[in-house]
Amino acid sequence: xxxxxxxxxxxxxxxxxxxxxxxxxxxxxxxxxxxxxxxxxxxxxxxxxxxxxxxxxxxxxxxxxxxxxxxxxxxxxxxxxxxxxxxxxxxxxxxxxxxxxxxxxxxxxxxxxxxxxxxxxxxxxxxxxxxxxxxxxxxxxxxxxxxxxxxxxxxxxxxxxxxxxxxxxxxxxxxxxxxxxxxxxxxxxxxxxxxxxxxxxxxxxxxxxxxxxxxxxxxxxxxxxxxxxxxxxxxxxxxxxxxxxxxxxxxxxxxxxxxxxxxxxxxxxxxxxxxxxxxxxxxxxxxxxxxxxxxxxxxxxxxxxxxxxxxxxxxxxxxxxxxxxxxxxxxxxxxxxxxxxxxxxxxxxxxxxxxxxxxxxxxxxxxxxxxxxxxxxxxxxxxxxxxxxxx
Length: 391
Hints:
Blueprint: E1 2-8, H1 12-23, E2 28-31, H2 36-41, E3 47-48, H3 50-58, H4 63-68, E4 70-72, E5 74-79, E6 82-87, H5 88-92, E7 97-99, H6 102-116, E8 120-121, E9 124-130, E10 138-143, E11 146-157, E12 175-190, E13 199-203, E14 209-215, E15 218-226, H7 236-247, E16 260-274, E17 277-278, E18 281-283, E19 289-290, H8 298-319, H9 323-326, H10 328-350, H11 358-373, H12 375-386
Parallel strand pairs: 1-2, 1-11, 2-8, 5-13, 11-18
Antiparallel strand pairs: 3-7, 4-7, 5-6, 9-10, 10-11, 12-15, 12-16, 13-14, 14-15, 16-19, 17-18
C-alpha cells in the first residue's frame, strides 16, 4: 500500500487529521489496532475548548455536536464550603467550552471517514515505523492475519503513550520530562441528571472532587484517591457519601444520587517527549505528551497538534516551502508547555497532597481566594481553560 500520510491510531486526533487532510485534497490511510466498536465506546475526555469545537465545525464534523453537546459558559470553584463561579464569556471576550464526549467525536469522524475519506483500517496493528529519518518512511502492520507495509511520504503517530511511533525516534535525540502524582481519580458514570448545570471543581481537606456530566441524563463524577487504589474497594454508597462530603456548601445545594454504571481509577501524570518530530515522522497527542486531567487539556492538545500538522503540510503542498513542517515540533511544544503549566497549576491548586501541612493548606485557600477576588487572576484561569490558540 502507498499513501501520502500514514496515520497510526483512530482516536480523535488521527480521525480529525484524516478529515483535515481529506478536505485539503491530501490522501491518507488510518491504521487502528482496535475494532470499530471499541473505538466508539472508549471513554475518555469530554470537554472541548472553543478552538476544538470551531475546528470540528469547520471540518464538517460539528452538526451533532452543536445539536447534542452542552455549551458551558463557566465552571464553579468550591472551597471552604463556599461557591464561586468563573464566567468564561465575560472574561475572555465570548469564549466557552462544550461538553461532548470523546466517544461521540469519534463516532462522528468515523462516519465521515467511511463515507467519503480515505482508507480506515480497523484491527490493523502497527508493528513498527521504519526509515523515519528518510524521505520514504514505512509503517509495518498486521491486518487480517497478514503482515503488510504502508509506504508513506509522512507518518503521524496518534497511537498514544504505548504506541510504536515514538519508539522510532532514536533515544539519543530525545528528552523526556515527566512527573507522577501520589494520587489518582476514582471516576464514576451514573444514570442521574447532573446536580449542577456546569462543572464543579471542589477543594476539600479530604481531597479533590469534580462534578461533570456526559449528557443531561448521565453524570460523570470524580474523587481524589491514593495512587494505586482499586476501584472495586469502593462501594456505591461509600462513593456517594464521600462525594457529598467534598461538595458540601453552606447553602441548600444537594447532590443527587443514582445508579452507578461504571467505576474506574485514572492515574495522574505529566509527560512531555521532545522533539515531536524526527525526519518524516510526527508525533501527536498522547504519543508526545500527557497532562493530568484537572485542566481538561488532553484531547484539546491532540487537536492542536493535528491542526498544526495539517496546516503545515497544506502550506508545503501549496508553496513548496517546508518551513512550517520544519517548525512543527517547536510550534506544538509552545502550546503543550502552556497546557502542562495550567494542568499542573490546577492540580496543585485543588488536590491535597498526602503529606500536606497546615501551611500548604492555607496557601491553597489563599490562591483560591485570589481567583475569587481578582479579575486578573480569574481571567488567567478562564483564558487557559477555554483554550490556547493553535499555532
